[in-house]
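To whoever is on call:

I kicked off a structure prediction for a single chain this morning and the downstream step that reads the tokens threw a length-mismatch warning. I double-checked the sequence; it's 199 residues and nothing unusual in it as far as I can see. Pasting both halves so you can look.
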Amino acid sequence: MTVVHRISEHWYVPLIRGLIAVLFGVVLLVHPIVAVASLVILFGAFAFVDGLLTIVTAFRFAHPDSGRWWSMLAQGIVGILVGLIAFFLPITAAWALSILIAVWAFSTGILELGAAFRLRRDVPGEIFLALSGVLSLLLGVAFVILPGAALLTLVFVVGFYAIVAGVSLIVLSIRLRTLRTRTQAAPLSGTFQPPTNPR
């Protein structure tokens, strides 16, 4: 089984990640006041679930032909650790929220850019994974430059980021599903058709 086939077979993983990200962003934008009080827990849940899904993806790609799948595993572990910190140390995480988000955004952005770079020859849609990585890096830079920004502003920033990044992952999943359909149909087009006997 080729790398492209293995990746396209699991097109639903970025779809799930994208839908969760979009839902997370919509909740923040629709209920910003409520989200201010629970932003730490919300972000922790988002990072934790996203980390689990990324680890699942990494193990799906654990194959000699699939490249450095360990980078996706590292991305998932970082997401889970950030989520656990937000869950079990909410008071500490509240004042360090900008640092938490910056660390997560930087690590996610760098690893997603690395994955997009490796997939650029096989997957015609890796630009959307790269876009998600660039957005993550920009989010991390924003939190480093403006560490004292109001939590309400952070709610809107994270909300918009999650929606855009989620849409990018959803588009990527659609392209992977299209690629999967093409790779399944390709062998069929080359099968031998015996000639019919004329009557």
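Update from on-call: the warning came from a stale cache, not from the record. Cleared it. Sanity check on the structure: The chain has one domain: 3-181.
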